Amino acid sequence: MGKYLDPRADLTFKKIFGEHKHLVISLLNALLPLKDDERVESIEYWPADQIPERTEAEKYSIVEVCCKDNKQREFIVEMQMTWTESFKKRVLLNASKAYVAQTNKGMKYKTLQPVYALNFVNASFMKDVDDYYHYYHLVHDKYTDKVIDGLHLIFVELPKFKPQTISERKMQVLWLRFLTEINDRTQEVPAELLENAEVSEALEILERAAFTDAEMRAYDKFWDSISSWRTLEGDWEDKLAEAKAEAEAKLKQDKLDTARKLKAMNVMTTAQIADATGLTAEEIEGL
Fold first, then answer.
1. In the sheet where 115-121 sits, what is the strand order?
2. Which among 22, 90, 103 is positioned nearest to 62, based on CA atoms?
């Protein structure tokens, strides 16, 4: 058992970034694609009734902290412990809702401020690319310097992060190391993390001794729920793969049956049967 708890859990993530404004400001400035004159200077947390609602399935798999800065820009920071493709649409929906909600406050279109959705994902979902940082926004498909400033969606695949192979800004590396290297088995903390004042403060907040018995029960319940969710998710993926394999096998057999009948009729060449069924000439000759 280590000295610290895992910062990715609901309780700990919210305690660090949902209760300490300067820490979430540091996180936003480190991870968001902001120019020097766009850096976040101060924030206010959203009222509880403005936080996006979650489904039962998302209750334990998603942790969020929502706030806006002195420029009225909106920020939704999430830790996603599991991944499905529907989460992308959920992120887009909630960011869009936050953008549209500004009009309810009497703001004119020209004064609408951008919404940033920063999503840490504790899973790899882009299997075909090595990059861990993915930034989506509205850009002209030909003139990429032409941008409609409105929705900014950032996804960070935590399992892909490797600090020794990249050269990002220092604070980005430190915060990502904090989120990926610290957990409830940590015995010793790397000196680089302890030497940074903000990350060091976050580590103090994570100390196991600072949590009450009730908080520890909630923490354990969170991880139990994540474990159960992953088991169900794994079972579903296995069943889906099995069903897919059965469907592919049936389709192949149907093609073979069709090719066998066409071959018996002796009215089509092997090449024509191959074109009609999608089988190879070798497969047809072997019937």
1. 43-45, 62-69, 74-80, 115-121, 147-157, 133-139
2. 90
